[in-house]
Amino acid sequence: MAKLVAAERTGNTQSSRNELRNTGKVPAILYGYKVENTSVSVDENEFIKVIREVGRNGVIELDFDGKTTQVMVNDYQFDSLKNKIEHIDFIAINMDIERTVDVNVVVVGDAVGTKEGGVVEQPNFTVQVTARPADLPEEIEIDVTDLEVGSAIHVEDIRGNFKFTIEDEDDYVLATCHIPAEEPEEDEEAEEAEGEETEAASAEEDEE
């Protein structure tokens, strides 16, 4: 389990938060299971390393005030213009109580239907998963190797493959394979007629 050090944050004004960000720290809030709502800060680079290691739904050991608390990232705000993390919400969790989170779905493999001109599409990119924090997956891989043209993979097709529970309906579509619709060919005669009409109109304007 990845570890992250947090420091108590006393000031809560906009200027104090900006000052923290200028020193490479991120303002954050810690709340949840057996903890009081506490303003904290963490090092931005260390936080990024931890998230890359454990994933968006991973459990982090937050070292704060002389003790370690198991937390998850409930939310965080990212400023794309500044390319900086603006704020983080850490929620303390009970490792024995299940949680429901969104998990990314990743398609892997080369579908057999592509040999017949089919194209694989992924209509939905996340599913809702319920499990104890330690059992929550970072992502779910869907193997489309056996997917034929006109076929699809639904939640019901993969539901029994994992220890965790997928909350979405059985008919929730994860991947399809189909022949792309052909674009209608341009009618050359219609194009020629349109061109002649345009030329005639231009000639009439010139005569006027």
Automatic annotation (TrEMBL):
Residues 100-180 form the Large ribosomal subunit protein bL25 beta domain. GO terms for cellular component: cytosolic large ribosomal subunit. Pfam families: Ribosomal_L25p (PF01386), Ribosomal_TL5_C (PF14693). GO terms for molecular function: 5S rRNA binding; structural constituent of ribosome. It comes from the Bacteria. One of its GO terms (biological process) is translation. Residues 4-90 form the Large ribosomal subunit protein bL25 L25 domain. The keyword Manganese does not apply. Residues 179-208 are annotated as: Disordered. Residues 182-208 have a biased composition (Acidic residues). Keywords: Ribonucleoprotein, Ribosomal protein, RNA-binding, rRNA-binding. Part of the 50S ribosomal subunit; part of the 5S rRNA/L5/L18/L25 subcomplex. Contacts the 5S rRNA. Binds to the 5S rRNA independently of L5 and L18. PANTHER family: RIBOSOMAL PROTEIN L25/GLN-TRNA SYNTHETASE, ANTI-CODON-BINDING DOMAIN-CONTAINING PROTEIN (PTHR33284), RIBOSOMAL PROTEIN L25_GLN-TRNA SYNTHETASE, ANTI-CODON-BINDING DOMAIN-CONTAINING PROTEIN (PTHR33284:SF1). This is one of the proteins that binds to the 5S RNA in the ribosome where it forms part of the central protuberance. Belongs to the bacterial ribosomal protein bL25 family. CTC subfamily. HAMAP family: Ribosomal_bL25_CTC. This is Large ribosomal subunit protein bL25. It comes from Phocicoccus pinnipedialis. The gene is rplY.
